[in-house]
Amino acid sequence: MTAGPGYPMLALVLLCCLTSSTVEANKALKRTTEEEGAPRTTGTQLKNYLLEVLSGMRVRNVVVITSPSFDVNDVMASMWHQGLTAEVFRVSQDAENHNNPAKFRNKTAKEESFTWESVNWKFLYGRGPLFKSETATLVLGPAAWAARSAIEVVSRAVLGRWDSLLVVPVGEASAIYELPQHVQLGTRVAVIQELPRREKDKKQLACSGVVKEARLVGPRQYALTSVGCWRSGELSLEPHFLRPINSFMGSALRAGTLKGIQDVIVKRDGDKITYDGVFGSFLMQILNNLNVSLELEDYLTVGGLESDGKPEGLLGAMYTRSIDMCAVILSMIQARAQVIDYSICIVLYSAKFMTKLPQPMVEQFLLFKIYTWQVWCTILGFLCFSSIVSTILWGRLDGENTLPWTSTKYIRHAFTATFKTQVYMGSSHLPKSSPGRIVMTCTWLVVIMVVSVYNGHLTAFLSIPRMSKVPNTVREMIEMGYDMSISRGYSQYYKMKSSPIEEHQYILQTARFRQDVGLTPDQKYITEVLTEPVALLVSIVAITGIQDANSETVGAEQVCRLKSGTEPLFTQYGGIAYPQNSPLKEVIDAQLSRASSSALIKYPPPKCRSDIQIEKEKEPLGLVIVSGVLVLWTVGIALSMLVFLVEIIFHASTSD
């Protein structure tokens, strides 16, 4: 059969297709060969290097993080043979694997794609300090995978003070040199590498394997520094391998503060920065010892995790590790410990409520309060009884046979003579008998003493102002009908809420809740305390500031208008805080322990004076104080008019 003109073209197309298929097949085969050719096991030499380093570290437990298909059985067996315990976590797409820390974002997708961002590295949490100090975290696998996995671990800030990370890449890994730029401040990271054979052949005395440690070389700058070498089968390792950091080399710590809190006051003198305030001297000592500086950032609220899991405020910034620590003293409560780690206790204080300071009272019947009502009743009874006795013992007048107590005239004479003694008035009618005169003399003596005591007390009453009463204890606050103003979200609210004391729960049920921005309440809540029966519960940090801000000037003195109660509601412990599992906690806590060994931090008293002995300008007596006497005079006039009307009516009826 003869080929037509179109057959050569068809043959050419078929040849191209066959050639193309062969090339693609070769590429696919090459990719498969590369994947299959990637290291699947550690190798005897590198395994021995790893075991020798672990032996020098004196660890007992190893947490192994490896890839899905990497064989670690030989390594595990060798660890067990040396008496080490080990846990294996395979970062894979196998959701059925209980040791798989990966969390997939799309659970409904047919094919779940693995991403490094989906790995929850916090599975490394939950180990105590003692366990961590005897545990090494090991990233072991193919070189490229190990480098990427190690970068993920250190950049997610899951390594703490006692964590040690060993990275063992199997094969050549140029990406391992990117690891130092991701190391968080204070973490301990080392790399164990077997050198390529071509480098060994160049120089017989060269290292067959090296140990490199990530060390701080500048402000927040790490570099891999060679600290160990295998030469002729022996390991030469520096004695201070993976030592804890003791100098930050001028690094800047990001520290959070609360707006309006004077725990740390920044003072600038040109380029020189110093810190003052309650915590300032402690902080300066720590910064100098660790060669570190601060970058302060203010937050409006203490914050925490919202109901939807969103971090807010100062605690939220520590939860997300946006800051390295807080530079204010926080109360240590269990609710916050779920989000942050506290330092050692550096403050111990008693939480007290605030009320208005007792003020001088202007009372209408102040002149009558010199004696109690019981004394006034006793004086009145004494005068009446003296009048009756005087009437009985008055004596008969010359030429009259009428008995004194049967005569209205004698009774009137006896009563008027007795009651006139109260105003030092004499009477033209005196008792005729000696017993009656004795009674009158005794009455005068008693009246002189009563009036003298009254005059003395009157002077004292008008010289020393009578002060209003405010509650000093929880029981007094309840008895006097005071409400308590409490801010939600702060330590005082949580302490009152969890208190087993019945009085605290009663106060909480009748409390007025507010939401402060910062630790200082809004001015309207201060006004409530000054004008209404309301007590204010705030942080100990804010008490002195509130007292000074709401004081008044009297002459050359600042006089407080607010005071704290005498009875503490509860005792609180205070300290600074760090993000959870922070590698900086132990080193800063050690400095805090040295700084506070002499004494705990104490908050200074307010600048305003809260005593009531400050001399004020003397003011004349007002109408309110004198009005009590006028009221009594008005009552007497009304009573006399009533008697006058009764007499008129009675006289008219009898005359008819």
Automatic annotation (TrEMBL):
<keyword id="KW-0812">Transmembrane</keyword>
<keyword id="KW-0472">Membrane</keyword>
<keyword id="KW-0675">Receptor</keyword>
<dbReference type="Pfam" id="PF00060">
    <property type="entry name" value="Lig_chan"/>
</dbReference>
<feature type="transmembrane region" description="Helical">
    <location>
        <begin position="438"/>
        <end position="462"/>
    </location>
</feature>
<comment type="similarity">
    <text>Belongs to the glutamate-gated ion channel (TC 1.A.10.1) family.</text>
</comment>
<keyword id="KW-1133">Transmembrane helix</keyword>
<dbReference type="GO" id="GO:0015276">
    <property type="term" value="F:ligand-gated monoatomic ion channel activity"/>
</dbReference>
<dbReference type="InterPro" id="IPR052192">
    <property type="entry name" value="Insect_Ionotropic_Sensory_Rcpt"/>
</dbReference>
<keyword id="KW-1003">Cell membrane</keyword>
<keyword id="KW-0325">Glycoprotein</keyword>
<dbReference type="GO" id="GO:0050906">
    <property type="term" value="P:detection of stimulus involved in sensory perception"/>
</dbReference>
<dbReference type="GO" id="GO:0005886">
    <property type="term" value="C:plasma membrane"/>
</dbReference>
<protein>
    <recommendedName>
        <fullName>Ionotropic glutamate receptor C-terminal domain-containing protein</fullName>
    </recommendedName>
</protein>
<feature type="signal peptide">
    <location>
        <begin position="1"/>
        <end position="25"/>
    </location>
</feature>
<dbReference type="InterPro" id="IPR001320">
    <property type="entry name" value="Iontro_rcpt_C"/>
</dbReference>
<feature type="transmembrane region" description="Helical">
    <location>
        <begin position="370"/>
        <end position="394"/>
    </location>
</feature>
<feature type="domain" description="Ionotropic glutamate receptor C-terminal">
    <location>
        <begin position="372"/>
        <end position="637"/>
    </location>
</feature>
<keyword id="KW-0732">Signal</keyword>
<feature type="transmembrane region" description="Helical">
    <location>
        <begin position="621"/>
        <end position="650"/>
    </location>
</feature>
